[in-house]
Amino acid sequence: MNSLWFFDDVNLFTILCPHRFKDFKKSHEFNVYKKNDYIYFEEDSADKIYLINYGKVKIGYVTEDGDEIIMAILSKGEIFGEKAILGEEKRNEFAQAIDSETSLCTITTDMMIELLRENKEFSLKIYKFIGFRFKKLERRLQLLLFKDTKTRLKEFIKELGEDFGYKNVVTGDTIIRQPYTQKELATLIGTSRPTLNILLNELKDENYLDFDRKEITLKKYGLGN
């Protein structure tokens, strides 16, 4: 597993949440959001970082034409809004809860910097992780803007294989336990759910993959195409 949102099998929430630190525990609270509640909007002040206790959050932005572009859907243990510790003053994306109930650990920029300062080795890993994440988000944006829907789906499934998959030692296929619903997957590649189903079935007929509600099997052949 080589996940975009985790590194070295470390769950960021369990390490960074102030609730785990004696000096911060008393003043720390979790914030709960209902489905479709916005955590922040584009142009809001970037003065907090968020860790997901439970639930899901989508990250995206709105184009000048009013189209919504979804860059990521995050879940338990993941971090967002982290550009605040890099000096960003205004948000250039929105964050919205998409589960019926989403609990977040909210950390001020000053508190996060203090936590990172206490562990320099981990601090370096955090900044390296952020850089790696930016590169992957930039690549995803390029796919959304310049590639056809079928190519976007194939590339995104390859990425899921890298982040969430494991190898079947007998067949050489990559097994991906689905981290997203079909609706979420369609949103992430910028298409509709009916179109996604059509494309998945086309790729199945081409022996590129197999799929059910719980898993996607990326065929050994598919890894080279």
Automatic annotation (TrEMBL):
* Segments forming domain HTH crp-type: 147-222
Q: Which SMART domains match?
A: cNMP, HTH_CRP
Pfam families according to UniProt:
cNMP_binding, HTH_Crp_2
Keyword vocabulary terms for this entry: DNA-binding, Transcription, Transcription regulation
Q: Could you tell me the superkingdom of the organism this chain comes from?
A: Bacteria
The record ties this protein, via InterPro entries, to: cNMP-bd_dom, cNMP-bd_dom_sf, Env_Response_Regulators, HTH_CRP, RmlC-like_jellyroll, WH-like_DNA-bd_sf, WH_DNA-bd_sf
The segment(s) forming the Cyclic nucleotide-binding domain are: 12-128
Entries under SUPFAM superfamilies matching the protein: cAMP-binding domain-like, Winged helix' DNA-binding domain
Q: What is this protein called?
A: Crp/Fnr family transcriptional regulator
Source organism lineage? Bacteria, Pseudomonadati, Bacteroidota, Flavobacteriia, Flavobacteriales
